[in-house]
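User: EamA domain-containing protein. Structure?
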Amino acid sequence: MDAGSGGGYGYGWAVCAGFNAALAAISTKLPLPHQFLRYAFVALFNVTMWGCYVNSLKSLSSLQATVTNFATNFISSGLAGFFFFHESLSPQWFAGALLIIIGVVILSKSSVEEKLRTD
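Assistant: Predicted structure:
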């Protein structure tokens, strides 16, 4: 499949990869009875993240997959910290998150338009 077709599924896989990366980070803070369980969850979520990321590359360019994965990871990690661990989020964090989302949209659209022009 080329980078312009099947993008919806590709973005779904990239978002899933980002969530799993965030879950790997979140699992390190969980109050589990054994340290081994934390490592097991980190490994599980990272392996799942890589599987999702590889699947996203089947229908997206590496740029689209990477920035979508990164943005999802960043935003979901920050929100999880806020809701689950009562960490504060400054207005600068929200401004940065908004700029990341805008950047992802711009990069995704420009990457698809560039691909269409070269075909």
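The chain has a mean pLDDT of 88. The two ends are 13 Å apart (CA to CA).
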